[in-house]
Automatic annotation (TrEMBL), chain A:
GO CC annotation: nucleus
Gene: Sertad2_1
Name this polypeptide is given: SRTD2 protein
Matching InterPro entries: E2F-SERTA_domain_protein (IPR052262), SERTA_dom (IPR009263)
A Pfam match: SERTA
Domain SERTA, first and last residues per copy: 32-79
Domain of life (superkingdom): Eukaryota
Biological source species: Corythaixoides concolor
TrEMBL record, chain B:
Gene3D superfamilies linked: YVTN repeat-like/Quinoprotein amine dehydrogenase (2.130.10.10)
SUPFAM superfamilies hit by this protein: WD40 repeat-like
Family: Belongs to the phosphatase 2A regulatory subunit B family.
A single GO molecular function term of this UniProt record: protein phosphatase regulator activity
Signal peptide (from-to): none
Keyword Repeat tagged: yes
InterPro entries cross-referenced by the UniProt entry: PP2A_PR55, PP2A_PR55_CS, WD40/YVTN_repeat-like_dom_sf, WD40_repeat_dom_sf, WD40_rpt
Name by which UniProt lists this protein: Serine/threonine-protein phosphatase 2A 55 kDa regulatory subunit B
GO cellular component: protein phosphatase type 2A complex
Keywords: Repeat, WD repeat
Length: 283, 449
């Protein structure tokens, strides 16, 4: 039941799965363990696919992992209640998927599938293609699939919340320009006067982030009284000490707040340097 | 005008007003609209797309000469908000797709908005310029620097009128605070702070400070293998600046009060509906994952969207929603197929109208649904080029769920699941809606009497 207009190159496997999921949705006679097995296989296949991505989707991975957990729990409870019994009618092929092999999921018979035994055998002629393409998975396999995808999502964090932040690669520390702000008053006034009109040049507004230099601090058009920059409320949280150099700029109402924000403070986090060195050295 | 606003559904007839975007058969991925938002007055309408661009439309002044053209929206500004980035440390490409745009209330002549991709939030200033200075001392007319020693007299630059130019400039860049993907941003009612939420954490920012944020929610377990739940959306209360909510992939909503502690790991309220055993399936948890949460304008209710329903919750009642609306319950019997093709993970948003009397959300086949909370009537409409004649009234659509299909109905199996309406917006005070259909933006208005 793929929608029209949905252009996908379906591999044989995907076509197979699409057919299986349609069967799941439309068939009322499909035995419950078979349905469960189908869903489980779909989950594990998806998790396997995500593992091959550089950055798996965390939200989806968690949802799928939870579905596997739910099925796992159900199967555990059944195996605790029922003696192990295999439906003789089912022929299990050692059908495996590329990718599944690499995860080391072995083929084992599930316990608890015996509940629907009579139905299984009755429907065997119809459901053979379905059964033959289902991979049988053990409890350990499910657990390992879950933990392996979730471990992959534990990204090495280059920040430690809440306060330690390092600048991004493309925002170079602005110290060279910062020192330019420590001017004597008369030089400051001259520069400031020119800078007030500096923003009147037709600037290329599409160069959105490159080199936010001093000019950008004064970029606001000082077109009379009504146009003041984004208002800075009177109550301010504490600032890092290096921003104290911005004090001289407070005379220009359009400048004071933006300068602080445009200058990335370069913090040397020693543990972060160690980490980077490790990667570079290839330990 | 507000006549008829918020009144019974039957009184509102929705008409096509405008559509933006190309009609090409092939859709360029970068043009896919990923967020839509009106500003607080409804004068501006912003869209963000997968290519990292923001397009702002402005409503034109209503003219007495053309009363039927009730304030059309025209392009006001277009800019590149985010570019693709590469994280060298993790060897990851960071998408430039704009996940959310949120406007700040207007405080002066300029407009401000927040836009975010997966990792970085930016504050943009959009302002008009209609004058330019002429007569610099240190530069000549071409912008070349003059030799200062050659200057013998000074003059004061004068402002001369010029053609209106709308500029967008980035005023703040809030980066490096999210390890996981940002799904929500929300401006606080104090207009001094805002929050950004990713899968596992929520950070609070002050607009003035970009190199520091406060972590207010952290649900990352010490051992990732124990992770069973992620944050899916978050929003500040519209009036109480200390209160916010966040939704989870398990269908729960937590309301937090920032006054109680710095790290809001303990919620003040916990909203969860007990599961309906008759609807239990393998996909129950997946379809319970909340894709959007929105406070009503009044602040008394929250609305949540999960895969099949929209729910309205009263803040004073945590154990179940006060209203549940079925968006497309006919999909309940197709969940396995929708899981197989990943449609079950689609994240639909939901919106309130200005008076909180009607709610709207999208569906498949370019359908979108509206529910009137007072009359309990609902309607299904379609955003399509076929019904895009000026001021054409939209005809209600109906999905046939079995049995005989009537002439105008469409059967479930004929629905186009590639045409999904994930993002919609409702004007803050009028019956004007914006509906994003892949790469097209539709604007509908109620019929002018």
């Amino acid at each position: 039941m793929l929608g029209r207009g949905l252009k996908r190159k379906l591999s044989d496997y995907e076509e197979n799965m699409a057919g299986l999921s349609s069967a799941f949705d439309s068939s009322r006679n499909l035995p419950y363990p078979l349905k469960r097995q189908l869903v489980l296989n779909m989950c594990l296949t998806k998790l396997q696919t995500y593992k091959m991505l550089v950055e798996p989707n965390l939200h989806r991975s968690v949802l799928i992992a939870n579905t596997v957990r739910q099925i796992q729990e159900e199967m555990r409870q059944e195996s605790n209640q029922q003696p192990i019994n295999v439906c003789p009618g089912i022929t299990l092929s050692s059908h495996s998927y590329t990718g599944m092999e690499s995860s080391g999921i072995s083929l084992q018979l599930p316990s608890g599938i015996s509940q629907q035994e009579p139905n299984c055998c009755d429907l065997r002629s119809v459901e053979d293609p379905i059964e033959n393409s289902l991979l049988i998975v053990s409890d350990d396999d499910m657990s390992s699939a879950i933990s392996s995808i979730l471990k992959d999502l534990d990204f090495v964090e280059d920040i430690s919340p809440p306060t330690c932040l390092i600048p991004t690669g493309d925002d170079q520390p602005k110290f060279p320009e910062n020192t330019g702000l420590k001017l004597e008053d008369d030089r400051q006034d001259l520069k400031g006067a020119e800078c007030v009109f500096g923003s009147f040049e037709i600037s290329n507004s599409t160069s959105y982030l490159k080199d936010l230099a001093i000019d950008d601090i004064f970029e606001d058009i000082d077109t009379s009284m009504y146009d003041s920059d984004f208002c800075c409320p009177p109550v301010m949280p504490p600032r890092p000490p290096s921003l104290a150099t911005e004090e001289p700029l407070k005379t220009f109402p359009s400048c004071n707040s933006s300068s602080a924000s445009n200058i990335q403070i370069c913090r040397t986090d020693l543990s972060e340097l160690d980490h980077i060195m490790e990667i570079l050295v290839g330990s | 005008s507000l006549a008829g606003f918020g009144s019974l559904m039957q009184d509102v007839l929705w008409c096509f007003s405008q559509v933006k975007g190309t009609i090409d058969i092939g859709v360029t991925e970068a043009d896919i609209i990923s967020t839509v938002e009106f500003n607080h007055t409804g004068e501006l309408l912003a869209t963000g797309d997968k290519g990292g661009r923001v397009v702002i439309f402005q409503r034109e002044q209503e003219s007495k000469n053309q009363p039927h053209r009730r304030g059309e929206y025209n392009v006001y500004s277009t800019f590149q908000s985010h570019e693709p980035e590469f994280d060298y440390l993790k060897s990851l490409e960071i998408e430039e797709k704009i996940n959310k745009i949120r406007w700040l209330p207007q405080q002066n002549a300029a407009y401000f908005l927040l836009s975010t991709n997966d990792k970085t939030v930016k504050l943009w200033k959009v302002s008009e310029r209609d004058k330019r200075p002429e007569g610099y001392n240190l530069k000549d007319e071409d912008g070349r620097l003059r030799d200062p020693s050659m200057i013998t007299m000074l003059r004061v630059p004068v402002l001369r009128p010029m053609d209106l130019m709308v500029e967008a400039t980035p005023r703040r860049v809030f980066a490096n605070a999210h390890t996981y993907h940002i799904n929500s941003i929300s401006v606080n009612s104090d207009y001094e702070t805002y929050m950004s939420a990713d899968d596992l954490r929520i950070n609070l920012w002050n607009f003035e400070i970009t190199n520091q944020s406060f972590n207010i929610v952290d649900i990352k377990p010490a051992n990732m293998e124990e992770l069973t739940e992620v944050i899916t959306a978050a929003e500040f209360h519209p009036h109480h600046c200390n209160t916010f909510v966040y939704s989870s992939s398990k269908g729960t909503i937590r309301l937090c009060d920032m006054r109680t502690s710095a790290l809001c790991d303990r919620h003040a309220k916990f909203f969860e509906e007990p599961e309906d055993p008759s609807n239990r399936s393998f996909f129950s948890e997946i379809i319970s994952s909340i894709s959007d949460v929105k406070f009503s304008h009044s602040g008394r209710y929250i609305m949540t969207r999960d895969y099949l329903t929209v729910k309205v919750w009263d803040l004073n009642m945590e154990n179940r929603p006060i209203e549940t609306y079925q968006v497309h319950d006919y999909l309940r019997s197709k969940l396995c197929s929708l899981y197989e093709n990943d449609c079950i993970f689609d994240k639909f948003e939901c919106v309130w109208n200005g008076s909180d009397s009607v709610i709207m959300t999208g569906s498949y086949n370019n359908f979108f649904r509206m529910f009137d909370r007072n009359t309990k009537r609902d309607v299904t409409l379609e955003a399509s080029r076929e019904s895009s004649k000026p001021r054409a009234i939209l005809k209600p659509r109906k999905v046939c769920v079995g049995g005989k299909r009537r002439k105008d109905e469409i059967s479930v199996d004929s629905l186009d699941f590639s045409k999904k309406i994930l993002h919609t917006a409702w004007h803050p005070s009028e019956n004007i809606i914006a509906v994003a259909a892949t790469n097209n933006l539709y604007i509908f208005q109620d019929k002018v009497n």
